[in-house]
Amino acid sequence: MKWRVACIQTNIDFGEPEKNIKQMEWKVKETMETVQPDVLLMPELWTTGYDLTRLHDIGDENGKKSQTIFSTWARQYQVNIIGGSIAKKTNHGIYNTMYVADRSGSIIHEYSKLHLFQLMDEHLYLAAGERDSLFSLEGETCAGFICYDIRFPEWIRKHTVHGAKALFVVAEWPSSRLSHWRLLLQARAIENQCYVIACNRIGSDPNNDFPGHSLIIDPWGNIVQEGSDQEEVVSAEIDLTKVDSVRKTIPVFSDRRVEIYEQDLDVRKKF
Description:
Structural class: alpha/beta
Distance between the termini: 51 Å
Number of strands: 16
Strand content: 25-35%
Helix content: 25-40%
CATH topology: Nitrilase/N-carbamoyl-D-aminoacid amidohydrolase
Number of domains: 1
Largest sheet: 8 strands, mixed
InterPro entries: C-N_Hydrolase, C-N_Hydrolase_sf
CATH superfamily: Carbon-nitrogen hydrolase
Shape: globular
CATH class: Alpha Beta
Domain CN hydrolase: 3-240
Number of helices: 8
CATH architecture: 4-Layer Sandwich
Protein name: Amidohydrolase
Radius of gyration: 18 Å
Family: Belongs to the carbon-nitrogen hydrolase superfamily. NIT1/NIT2 family.
């Protein structure tokens, strides 16, 4: 299976959902006319930015509006959409939630960010997700993650041992840790022998600057395409059969010693 994937690397207007939606609508149209991708990605919290204190006012009630938008765009352009993430308001709290729409416009997957980033006060305003992020897209097993999730390799591996060949990452990753962004994503690709397609925003909000540098990385950890620090579409073709080839070349998954990993550790043991 070959896909052309495209990350819409864009600025986000702080706390301005309607403005951001109109801007994204234009960017989706332009991307489909010029790049014609099979899979389209957007950044994390692209409708609101990190205006966390106002999410009760500007968040999306049960994610209904966002789901309608993604369904409409996916059906109109016959494209699979990894919808970045949005602030989903519920009776149990506000979640940082990703939706996936297929070419027919059906919402086929929902994932709420599992790991909340305390340095940006997420734990004060957001509720943590509780479910995995494995899904099937055109018959291929994939997984989706949100920003801070990539610092937890055990969470990523949980999905790749169940067959995920492409990891879609959406983020508002700050400029101060750009080197970590690149290294962590390459590490996740290498250790899981899969594609990583990661969409980050550019611009700034009252508290942070964001560097862009969206990445498309192959199963050997090679950077296929990397964005700049400007608004652009970062695009490349990926061939998922390469995942099978790499996993046969270095059989990491069959060489795992899960029975040992799961044993309790005894720090008092003497040799």
